[in-house]
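Comment thread on ticket #2218

A.B. wrote:
> Attaching the input chain for the structure job we discussed in standup.
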Amino acid sequence: MNLVGKILTVLILVMSLLWAAFAVAVYATHTNWKLVVDNPTPAAGKPEGLKQKLEKAKKHNEELQDRKTGLEEKLAEAKKAAEQARGKLASEYDVLQREHDQLQQRLAKLVQAERDAVAAMAATQKTLEALRQEVTVLRANIAQAQTDRDAHFDQVVKLTDELNQKVNQLKQAKARETTLAADHAKALEVLRKFGLSGEPELYADQPPDVEGIVLAVTGDGLVEISNGSDEGLLKGHKLHVYRVGGGRSVYVGRIEVVRTDADRAVCKIDPKYQKSPVQKGDRVASKIE
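C.D. wrote:
> Ran it. Output below, let me know if you need it in another format.
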């Protein structure tokens, strides 16, 4: 055998080994496509068939489709509800917008009213301040008027008292005038019976028939007696003073009237006829026996 034959033999051997290895590899990687496609009972190394997977996938797809349909229906309902809600919200928005506009108008009116009220309040405060000042002036005037009224009232009361006194004095004077008129008529009647004149100036130096007492003695020769002009005493009349004691009367002296009041008179002591000092309580008479 020549070299070429040997080479060919070796090549054939090598190729045979290669083809054997290839066949072993092919066999090792051989797949049972029927089980791959249809295997309802999967086991270790034998997964579930594609047919079963496809059926499960279809079933899952149908479920998903049903879910999709349900979701689409829910989505449609949600869209419808959202549309209704949007319409409702739009209506409410329109209502709220109108209310907002109305409130804005009311707010503008209230702001204007507040401004007017503030202006009116300011004017009222000015008027009130002016009225307060006027009230203060009026109170001062009233106080002065009350003071003047009280003064006038006191004056009226005083004048009323004086008027009442004058009225009483007038009544007393009228009563005394009546009494004196009656006494005068009686005196004239007595004078006519005794043949005497009714002219007082003819008897001016003769005192009326009076009796009294010495009320006071001064150190300048004057004495005050309890008889006055109401009893007919006049300035210049001369009276006698005597003192009663021990059951007898003692002549003291003579006095002359220098001033008269209604119920008393002031007399001066005549030293020519003075027998003893005149004392308070001595008796006074126009005639002595």
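A.B. wrote:
> Thanks. Noting for the ticket: The two ends are 240 Å apart (CA to CA).
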